[in-house]
Amino acid sequence: MRFRSSIRSAVWLGVAISAMTLSSPAAGDTPEAVRLMPPAAEAIYGGPEYTRRTRVDTRRHVWKEKRAYPNFAQTVTFRIRLPNARTRCEILARPAWDPSAPWERIGGWRGGPPAPREREVRWSCPGPILLLLRVRGTRVPFGGRAVCEALYRRRSVAVRRGSLGRYVRPVLILEGFDPTGDTEFNDPSWMDQPDFARLLRLGMERYDLDPWVVDWGWGGADLREQGREFVELARAIDHRSGGYGRTVVVALSTAGVAARFGLAEAYDSGLRHGVRTLLTLAAPHRGVVVNEHLWNFLLQAHPAFEDPHSLVSGPEPGSESYEILTSPAAQQTIQRGLQFDDFMADLRSRGKDGYDPRVIHIGFASSNFGNLGDGTARIRPRSGRLINRVRVSLLGLPIWFTLHRVRSRFRYDHYPGDQPPSDLQRSYREHRYLFGILRVDARIDWPHLPTFVPTHSALDFPETLVQEGDYLRYASTRSPFRRCYIKPGRQAPHDRTLIEWVDAATGQPPPGEENAVLYEVARSFQEAEQERTSPLAQPQTGENRASQSR
User: Are 167 and 237 in contact (CB under 8 A)?
Assistant: First the structure.
């Protein structure tokens, strides 16, 4: 789940953005994900306009950066505060869906007299644009926070990758939880791994797929609203594809739950959406179980947002952490969230227990079933492991002292879970100055799995797991999913796509060593084409639909 969004790793503690220059990078330096991603051909917009804000600020004498994505033509407002002559701000821009395009400098400013401390700048955005906001503070002992804030609007958009005029095998790909809007799937420049772009290109070349990649207007919005925006886009794409009703949807993380809600609601209202198959990857269909210590860590430091399940106060209003944790999508998917029970009850009241029975559901889990070999057999409970520790160092010396350590039995520790966010795996570091002089470094480590457990489609525990002595094993039960795939061996990162999967019921991979996602997408189209004598000659007109419904 993209608690990317999904507690998604790049979102919870912020995305580390690489330094960017005004010129286009050399061909040899271009990330593989950028080289592999097929070009954007056209776009379809849906849903309401969301007012978004991106803010970057710092007191330190180093450049700090944030990315912002206005994804349609509009006027963007920048609010800049530079308290003294040592502070700086600059804003760069390039086309949002073309990472190889050169950067253009919108403007640069210096603080202090005679320049005004605070200013507001308006800029006419010609279309989907990636903005890079950069500020630099001052050296100690000089004080003052340099701030740059962008105010803009966004809508959900489906971008056709490849070439124009092809709608035979439409595949709709939905990104997951992204409340800050700085990691769009249509701009792969942030991706450490080229898996997604490689899979997209492979599907186009091997199976003649027509992919549409969806970025949400707000990835932290109410999942009900996201589901309705998805149905609106799916209907438009099905119409362009001839109305055959064979669109395949690949939904990552929370997008899988949002798509379920949209499809089930459409089923209740009799609305045709054109979706034949829904593949959900690492989707939290039963919510997300968060490690108690990780949850408290994310909710610490500032008295503002009170979690009734915790004695730890929440982050400061207006901060990025506050927006992430209090966003509707987060509160609806975390089992400790304030809206979780209400949303899940609403979801299960739609369609058939929260599913559209007209749609084929196939689930994928990046987790596995244990620590005894291939991951498909049994799980041994664990206890007493080191959950996390906090270490400090004074004056920047390479000598670390353990300040806090937690050893406990995590409630779901004997269930499979995702790898922790990459920022947590690398240790989360914080720098503080006492009296503006004495530097104290803190390092927070989460050495063992799991730190959070999305209950994926194949892992709807405890219903799908049974106890056998000291072990647990997978038990096939009645499920709305036609097939469930799991990751054999060690758990994989939450948002990885180009990994090996095996069928949870048989323990076998797809034939021919094919990637299971591509295999299921291609299989859906092949079955749809076999079901129709001449699919291209029989578009779904109103008369055909009425006869089918009878």
Answer: yes
> Which DSSP state fits 357?
T
The string of pLDDT tens digits covering residues 381-409 is: 455 556 667 777 776 677 777 776 766 54
**Radius of gyration of the chain from Cα atoms?**
24
In the chain, count of helices (H) and strands (E)?
12, 24
How far apart (Å, rounded) are the C-alpha atoms in residues 17 and 125?
Answer: 22
Distances 238 to 112, 272, 421, 532 between C-alpha atoms, Å? 56, 10, 36, 17
Residue 61: per-residue pLDDT = 86
Under a CB-based contact definition with an 8 Å cutoff, are residues 3 and 330 in contact?
yes
| Structural contact between residues 361 and 280, judged by C-beta atoms closer than 8 angstroms | yes
**pTM of the complete model beyond 0.70:** yes
Rounded to whole angstroms, the maximal C-alpha distance in the chain is: 78
| pLDDT at residue 343 is higher than 90 | yes
Give the list of residues 6+ apart from residue 343 with CB closer than 8 angstroms, or none. 223, 224, 332, 333
Strand arrangement of the beta sheet that strand 401-407 belongs to: 401-407, 386-394, 438-445, 428-434
- List phi, psi (to 5°) of 83: -70, -25
Return the C-alpha torsion angle 312, 55, 444, 190, nearest 10.
130
Which position has the higher pLDDT, 286 or 82?
82
382/470 Cα distance (integer angstroms): 10
Q: What is the Cα–Cα distance from 77 to 304, expressed in whole angstroms? A: 28
Tokens of 170: 């439409």
pLDDT for 144 equals 76
Q: Find, among 132, 231, 118, 148, the residue nearest to 187 by Cα.
A: 132
Measured at the alpha carbon of residue 186, what is the angle toward residues 182 and 188, in degrees to the nearest 5?
Answer: 75
Place of tokens 């803190």: 442
